[in-house]
Write a structure and sequence with these properties.
By secondary structure, the chain is an all-alpha fold. It contains two helices and no strands. α1 (2-18) runs antiparallel to α2 (30-59). The longest helix is centred in the last third of the chain and has 30 residues, at 30-59.
Length: 60
């Protein structure tokens, strides 16, 4: 159960990196934050899918 919550937290963190508003001072970091957020969302989404399939197969 805690693994699932960690994966969901990582997924939400990735979305927050994508949609974080940056000030003029940090505007140069915006593409970097978007890229890090997209990679994080993809990795944790795949981890959630794998975790779901593994738990489904374990119960069958």
């Amino acid at each position: 159960m805690f693994k699932l919550l960690n994966y969901l937290g990582g997924l939400i963190g990735g979305f927050s990196l994508i949609y974080v508003p940056v000030t003029q001072l940090l505007a140069s970091l915006d593409p970097l934050l978007d890229a890090a957020g997209i990679i994080t969302v993809i990795v944790f989404a795949i981890a959630l899918i794998v975790h779901g399939v593994r738990s489904l197969l374990k119960k069958a």
